[in-house]
Amino acid sequence: MGLELSIASIVFLLLLVPFALVMEGIRRKTVARMQNRIGPPVWQPIYDVLKLFQKGKTDTLAKENPFFWIVPILTFLSGLAFFLFIPFNIISFQHDFIFLIYLLVLESALFVLAGFASNNPYSTIASMRELILMVCYEMIFAIVILTVFIFEGVLSVAQFDSLFLFWKLPVAFICFMVLVAVEIRITPYDTVDAPTEVLESIRNEYSGKGLAFLKMADALKMTFFAAMLLYFFIGNFNMVAFFVLIPVAVMVFSFIQATTCRYRVDQTFKRLAFYLILALVEIVRIKFIVW
Amino acid sequence: MHECTLPIGPQSPTMKEPMCIRVSLEGNYVNDARIRMGYIHKGIEHLFENKSIIKVLYMSEHICGICSYAHSACFTQAVEKLYNVHTPKKARYIRTIVAELERIHSHILWFGFAMHEIGYDTLFQYGMREREYILECFERLTGNRVIHSINKIGTVRYDFKKKDVPFVLERLAKVEKMLPFYLKMVEKNKVVVARLSNVGRISRNMARKFCAVGPLARGSGIKADIRKDRPYEAYSEVDFDLITDNRCDSLARTVVRLKEVGQSIKIIKQLIKRMPEEKIPPFSKIPPYLGKFPEPKDKFSYGQVEAPRGENFHFYKLEKGVVKKARIRTPTFQIIQLLDKLLIGVEIGDIPVIISSFDPCFSCMERMIVVKDGKKEVLNEDGFRAKYC
């Protein structure tokens, strides 16, 4: 295990949170343009977060629960920890992709915990929905990552250098796109974040700094998935091109969000189960048929 | 699974107007639903009493924001029937045009909100754009965008100018162009169909039993439309289809409303083509204007109009040009009894879809509050009968 820090990676880590928030701004702007609206400026999420840090806490019964204020900070930190692997391999060790899978489960589990800790019926429903879906989508994630690493025959994220893998693993790529939609909670799989059904999802009782941390964690997760999609399936050929392509990937997600509507939770689960089977088929396929 | 109670409303993104539904949940499914009303009760029937016809005419428009014309049309119809007022042909045509524009406006606004409930915000924004075209038409024809105040007893306030024709036709063409796209989106898009079909089923018998009106009844295959059953204004002179759908679910209601927009555009085009060349009288000779008018024997009168949401019924007792008693039955008042029955047994995600498929208008609906021993009770028709009759 080694800690590899270069100037570029330090600058990246310092500017990571504003970068992720600008990506969130780009998503909102793209959706707004597709919806025949002008939309907020791309740096609006940064303003929002700065404003939330100045705000005080609202008085809720939930604040007696220590998890209520600790969990958003932990969620944010786990969101930061993703970027130790991709795109700069700051930490690398043998079989570190298993650690990556655990990190994602941790982030989702903390999200669920935040909902249960806030002692609100709507947040509880959102957490329950996330738990139901986690059963499926974390397995899809693990299988897709395993497929990629078995196909490449490498043991660490740092050793990974392959271009245009989506051409060789098309089914895994489709499964991964579906997974991204579930993870970053965009339509058609945003049952957890459905504002007309569960209001503000798990964020109902949060305010001030806690809400700011949750918002930043969401932005970080979205940026991370855009980065991971590029890293594994397009290829890490040039750092500058990589950072230009991240907004493009975010725009693709925005396009999906703007052109679909949301499934009910049972329908989402059925579809995820189907994609789980597809992912299993792919991991078996690379053993026998390779092109 | 543990049980819990979830309050939906009075302030919720699910409903655009305040109403509270307390839902008992068993896991993810609804066990029991209780509707609580009374957040925007205005007591408008009482406010009508002992006011002159002219005052009530403009007050009646404030019953509802979206179908404001339908209420004033109902009142005008009641007064005109009682005093045998003759309305010129052109005035009747203008009234019909405004009524149909209002139907288009209401249905498109509803379509946007219904799509917003299932997460299709793009179609919601598109719907808002189309609605804006219709509001511009209103602004041109009546001078106002929401409360039109076009009706007068026996006549209308503004004449239909020839220079407005190309403007209105152009705006209608823009709406008409988008309609097939919306219909395709609703009927062919797999996600929309998955969310809407087989949700909130109202069988034909159930709709008959609860006297459902408007698109809700037509979505259950019942041919109920006041425009066809008892034609008023200029509806007997125009050609249009009565849209029904036998699928009985939320999808059927959506399709019915969208197809009705097409029929409304058809009606308006016919009326503009046949608009007679005559002058509209500035006022009509009835009691408030001319004191020495003979009082009719019968003091009771009613108006019956097909509002965008269904049959709108007003019943009045008039004496010497003054409203003595008023009774208003709006379409939502009639259909809201079905709501809590449909909610039982559905998933939480279906609640917004079912509520929006009703197109409820709570400010129209809230008619009655019973105050007894300092306790406030809001009752619907069934509850009132069970308790006090």
Order of helices and strands of chain B: EEEHEHHHHEEHHHHHHEEEHHHHEEH
**How much of the sequence of chain A is in beta strands?**
under 5%
Which class of secondary structure composition applies to the elements of chain B?
A: alpha+beta
The 3D shape of chain A can be described as globular
> What structural category do the secondary elements of chain A indicate?
mainly alpha
Q: Specify the overall morphology of chain B.
A: globular
Q: Which sequence of strands runs across the widest sheet of chain B?
A: 4-9-8-7
Output the radius of gyration of chain A.
19 Å
Mean pLDDT level of chain A: 90
User: How far apart, in Å, are the first and last alpha carbons of chain B?
Assistant: 41 Å
Label the CATH architecture of the largest domain in chain B: Orthogonal Bundle
Q: Which whole number gives the mean pLDDT of chain B? A: 87
Provide the helix percentage of chain B.
40-55%
Strand order of the largest sheet of chain A: 1-2
